[in-house]
Amino acid sequence: MTSPRILMDVDGGVATLTINRPEARNSLLRGMGAEIYALLEQVARNNAVKVLVFRGAGKDFCAGADMKSKVTAGENPPPDFDAYQVAALLHDMPQVTVAAVRGACAGAGFGYACACDLRVGDDDVRMNTAFIDVGVAGDMGVPWTLPRLIGSGRARDLMFLPRKIGSQEAQDLGLLQHVWSADAFESELTRLATRLAASAPLALPAMKANFVEAERVDFRAFLSIEAERHIRLLRSEDRVEAFKAWIEKRPPNFKGR
Predict the structure, then answer these.
(1) What is the spatial distance between Cα 207 and Cα 189, in angstroms, rounded to a whole number?
(2) Listing from the earlier edge strand, what are the strands of the sheet with 178-180?
(3) pTM exceeds 0.85, yes or no
(4) Structure confidence by residue, pLDDT tens digits, 176-204
């Protein structure tokens, strides 16, 4: 279900979704949200995939909606609801989601990045909420995700008073977990994704599920959910192998059971 403007590649336990409009800074045309969502759904159902890397082609991540196309389409185009659900899927899907941010990351692209589990960037990142500058209040769940990443006051500041945020400030704020040079970006990204994909195959999605559940229930309810998952993992063959490997000072040989 790939198209020229949305690419998907799966290599071992790592899937990479690429927005492929580098000539327009990977800005989103109407209908692209549905294409992205359909591909992400396929990945979410694929137990062999442990990590999803979300990125843009060329030098930019995603500059948000293609404003020229919106003006051409008229002042009140119908909403593209699938585009909103992409953020929910990036947040909820069992795979660890990594936003590989280079260059422009604004508007809807900023929202997608915030919905991922991890955000990594190069030294030319330019992040910007940008919503109020085009007369909208924000979308892709940013008022939900951003305060959880950087705090309520900082989130409001970036939404009410949008500005371009460089790599260092983004890392200082907690928006980016890792920043690499442009030359090292691809190799470091591959190393990170490969390391995640090689993690304990039962524990990694359970760990992500714990974070998702923790945002939905109170502390006591979460402790019960966490304990049930923990007990299941303690009874797994992979847990026994991991303990033995740790004692024997060798890499574990996980079987996913």
Answers:
(1) 21
(2) 6-11, 14-19, 51-56, 96-101, 118-122, 178-180
(3) yes
(4) 999 999 999 999 999 999 999 999 999 99
